[in-house]
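Predict structure. Chain length: 744.
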Amino acid sequence: MSRYAHSLPCNPDRDLWEPIENHEQAVAALSEGFLKRIDSGLAAWGDLLGRWHDVGKYSDEFQNYLACAGDVHGSEVSGKVDHSTAGAQLAIGSPSPFGKLIAYALAGHHTGLPDWDVATGRSGLKQRLEKQVPRWQSEATKHLESLRLPATIPVRPPEAYETYCRHRIASFRICCVIRMMFSALVDADFLATEAFMSPEQSGNRQSGSASMDDLAETLDGYLNRLRSGAKPSPVNQIRDQVSEACIDAAELVPGLFSLNVPTGGGKTLSSLQFALRHSVRHGLDGVIVGIPFTSIIEQNAKVYRGVFESLGEGVVLEHHSNTDPEQETTQSRLQSENWDAPVVITTNNQLFESLFACRTSRCRKLHRIARRVIILDEVQSLPVELLTPTLLAIRELVESFGCTVVLCTATQPALQWKGDFAIGLRGIRDIIPTSAKLHDRLRRTTVRAIGKLNDEDLIARIEAENQTLCIVNTRPHASKLFAALDESEANFHLSTRMCAAHRLDVLNSQIRPRLDNGTPCRVISTQLIEAGVDVDFPVVFRDACGIDSLTQAAGRCNREGRAAIGNVYYFQGERRPPPGTLRMSADHGLEIARHYDDLLSPEAIEAYFRMHYWQQKDRWDFRQVMDAIGRDPSRMEFQFRQIADRYRFIDEEAETLYVPWEKGKQLIRSLSESDYPPDRKLRRHLQRYSINLRRHELVQLDAAGALLSFHGYHTLTQRHLYDDKLGLMLLKADGIVPPEDYMC
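Prediction complete.
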């Protein structure tokens, strides 16, 4: 009796179905190739994963279900047929002690990496290894049962100099290898299944023909044209020196680098020049740029696309939650599933959370992160509470997965090993060894700490300026200050209570033109404007914050060097920042301000990071990620789902609300009138008209009759609650609705 891996929907002709042997061979070949690219010692593991992942499909139960239900590639998700546990049990039954290494991946190749032990359920690997599964063994599976696990696993032991727990490091490394194997299997399984089920879509995955040499030559040509058209100036001279240093450093062996260039030094394109030349020199596969904020990604992606436009589609993949749907193509949508693109630009939280993820959709791309140059922009913004696992992950990328990592920052690097910072990174090479001199040569602002300032005095100082930006720590404070300003078309407010499309409109159609024309422009904003928003004010006020945030605020001041010097005023407002990271950072910043006149000097920045990072040992693994990994590497009892839940950059309590601002009204109407959940394109468009709220805030809107949900998506139904200056006004949600406000 023939055994099949996949049928064709609505097609009973079994001659057209895919035999299991064909599918397992295709997956084995892909998985082996993916892992061999990373380490030749992983190749045999990849082959075995492909051959064993679907042994459960040989059972009569699965074949009967396939005949009745059509394709069941997702059958385990629906709970109909468990065909994944069989492979895990086969691996554990091997005489080798390494069976668990692939049992996690085999058991979870549809539902995600499991925890080892789930005491209250049946989903843990421990429980599934004891589960009764349909009998799959037969004469047809003898060749699979006879296969043996490789004798070794390519996991480097911890170095002799380690002062951090060596057993934890060993456990972490094995955990990373399992996740990389899982990634290779999942991507191979998806691609092989797609090639059979949807050959047309599979064909659309073909990446552009551009090589790393093509990209490097194209970027060099672009930069040469920029230089030839640029007027000689001290800033352009510095940018040329930074570019030359990046070219020279690209010849060095792969590993850890730092690129410490102050704002205005050409860091964006010079770091990419290093990455591309380094990839060519050492045969690496591409570039990943990790950035803290989506606003910077959109700016950088636009620059990159302009650079490589002549090379055609598929060179630059922009992957984040707020991607402009107008930039999305069929190819980019497919590339975003597994990062099969030469240059990927994404958020730091997308990159790092993927490295600790358990879900198939998040892990699928991991094997393509290996053997790339990874540029981590503004790396000093990494959360203190996740430092231990994050720095170990960076080490693994370099030491085990063939990556070069560039710690790219406008301030002094904060992550290098020191005697009191045992988890720090060793062997970081400075691309610009004279970075401290660049600080003085690119100085465009003077930062003054002016002490305490109440709201009344602050408003008076803001109104005395023709053009100024004031950045505070909370949305209520920003709203209150804006309301206290005189009513003028020159005054603006920015916060995350405004949807992204609204903020962008205010910036592009009102704030930037006024700044360019020299007309009055006063902006009250939360710290969102520090996230790489390209604006240039002669004067900036910054409420108490960390020195890293102060550096970003200063980057919005005299950015283009229009004035001889810009003025940044660092003050302590009436309200302390909210408890947690913001308050701790502000307290440390204020402490530095008491001891240093130049708050942005390398010495002040180093002192800040000593206080904020290096002396916070009890917070380095505050989320207890390492506890879920465990201390005993030989037992391999990893809690993968706990790891993923604990390693979060962003608070998962936030819920999305779509608002009827401008085009958002029509998009919400499209959502409400559809009988089906929104497709990807509509969701992408709606994302730009969304606001993140706490659960209790949604409850407040619901109680006021201002909330409706369509297909599980929350929408604001009362337009008067969304102000054209301030965005969402929760305080007005009292149930009283103007008659003209009801939406049709």
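Summary: The chain has a mean pLDDT of 88.
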